[in-house]
Amino acid sequence: MTDVIVIGSGPAGYVAAIRCAQLGLETICIEKESSSDGKEVLGGTCLNVGCIPSKALLDSSHKFYATKNNYQEHGISVTNLKLDLPKMMERKEGIVNKLTSGIQGLFKLNKVKSIQGTAKVVSANQVEVTNGDNKEIIEGKNIIIASGSRPIEIPSAKWDQNIVDSTGALEFDSVPKKLGVIGAGVIGLELGSVWARLGSEVTVIEAMEDFLFMADKQIARDVLKEFSNQGLNIKLGCNLTDAKSTAKKVNVTYQSSEGEQKDSFDKLIVAVGRRPNSEDIIGSELGIEIDEKGFIKVDDFCQTSVETIWAVGDVVRGPMLAHKGSEEGIMVAERIAGKKAQMEYELVPSVIYTHPEVAWVGKNEQELKEEGIDYKSGSFPFAASGRALAADDAVGFVKVLADKANDTILGVHAFGPAAAEIIQQGVIAMEFGSSAEDLGMTIFSHPTVSEALHEAAMSVNNQAIHIGNKRK
Ligand code: FAD
Ligand code: NAI
Questions:
Q1: Which atom of ligand 2 is nearest to the CA of 183?
Q2: CATH 3.50.50.60 in the chain, residues?
Q3: Is 413 known to be catalytic?
Q4: Which top CATH class is 356-460?
């Protein structure tokens, strides 16, 4: 019997497997995805059809857009600028292949055994693996389920050649002239931006009246304004009632406050959330509960009601983010090895990799108000940042929220250049229980866009240098 069986090789599973092996546990990782030659394809959604390919296209499309629209001001002009989409896609595939084969290398290095097949937990210590007509039972002292999630398909927009999910939207072979996106969430904004920058006329249809309901309201307002300026036509409070493909078009009907609307697109991306892969993965006789949204029920340490069975990543509650799954994987590996690891769920950062980026960690103002927490806030606009101005990238601001009683930082929110990296500094500060004053007393290199975080922290206590402070 092996020590640990991990089901799934996404960022939750492969990280759990490597950490288990580092801790001296004999570990097997089972992955169902395979290449045409029958080899397992490691890396899950994140590496193959998620974080990595989407960021590759975001970076490429940003370079194209900036060269076309923003460089003249720097004294750089380019004639005969051309988009070579197959080449852009080839670069994306190259990065994916490099990283997925990198995981194979890491498995070898750490002596994680990798098996190709579809796994199902059939008892507290047994996993059945199916590969074609072959079935085998593998035994393990512990089992970690990291089976991830998949895009949600809605009845009003069934997928076909023109109506696609996020995976299809990473593979268009030409730039759609008119692109529709259902859902103004993270995928809608990121992939909508990619194709808008490459020349699509993009309309985003969102059911909720509130734009980016999970973000700080002040940030969400500015983001909506900026993305509308960038050409994304975001329609809030619109309910899709029907989407039908013809040979070359998708005809869409939706309901807005002004009544029934119709539009037609060359392609339609449906990005309305993801569903956990929890069906048919655990034998019902084990009694492990699955909640109404399909998440496997676990405690704070990702343990199910069966002591030897754990579940991590998108298949359990919490944000569907790669870094959240990876940290859970590490926590579970360490607990299996007898350590007292835990996870700080309050400090999972969120990032939307548009340009500018949107990022946050901790509580936003509406949450603090709802929870009745007395707070103070400080913010700093990138328009006053020397580095952001030098880079011609001065949209947005950083906001720091701190406890009024003891100055402890409760949340950091950013919209602007390198917001993802700036938020990471906020995460570190919060992890160490920093006050706004501590962050304000930290030395930041000049000139950096991170200085906006420094100034926002100082502004919490009316000590910002490069903007006016509130009068006491
Ligand atoms: P997955 O990555 O989904 O991996 C699960 C693996 O389990 C898969 O390989 C699957 O084949 C395998 N599996 C499933 N069932 C079985 C079975 N029965 N037997 C064997 N194997 C099985 N998150 C971020 O943090 N940052 C981003 O920038 C980001 N960008 C994204 C962009 C897009 C377009 C998408 C779609 C997602 C993005 N995400 C991002 C989300 C991120 O990809 C997921 O949160 C993350 O991949 C979840 O990791 P996981 O290991 O739980 O599951
Ligand atoms: P999402 O939950 O971010 O957004 C879905 C949006 O669709 C919501 O605004 C919702 O109100 C709307 N919606 C739902 N049903 C609708 C309908 N019928 N008509 C119109 N709008 C509707 O989900 P998304 O964008 O699909 O992403 C899935 C997950 O992938 C996210 O939870 C996110 O965690 C992860 N992800 C993370 C990224 C990152 O970290 N940068 C990038 C991409 C995805």
A1: 7
A2: 2-150+275-346, 163-272
A3: no
A4: alpha beta
Catalytic residue among 62, 74, 355, 446: 446
The CATH classification of domain 163-272, taken from the options 1.10.10.10, 3.50.50.60, 1.10.357.10, 3.20.20.190: 3.50.50.60
Q: What is the CATH number of domain 2-150+275-346?
A: 3.50.50.60
Q: What are 217-265's pLDDT values in tens digits? A: 999 999 999 999 999 999 999 999 999 999 989 999 999 999 999 999 9
Model confidence pLDDT, tens digit, residues 143-167? 999 999 999 999 999 999 999 999 9
Residue of 150, 252, 268, 272 to mutate, ligand 2, most atoms within 8 A of C-beta: 272
Q: How far apart are CA 220 and CA 84, in angstroms?
A: 34
CA separation (Å) from 138 to 115, 118, 130, 254, 421? 11, 12, 11, 50, 42
Going from the Cα of 45 to the center of ligand 1, the distance in angstroms, rounded, reads 3
The reported pTM is 0.97
In 68-100, which positions are buried (b, 16+ CB within 10 angstroms) versus exposed (e)? Answer: eeeeeeeeeeeeeeebeeeebbeebeeebeebb
User: Token digits for 257?
Assistant: 């406050």
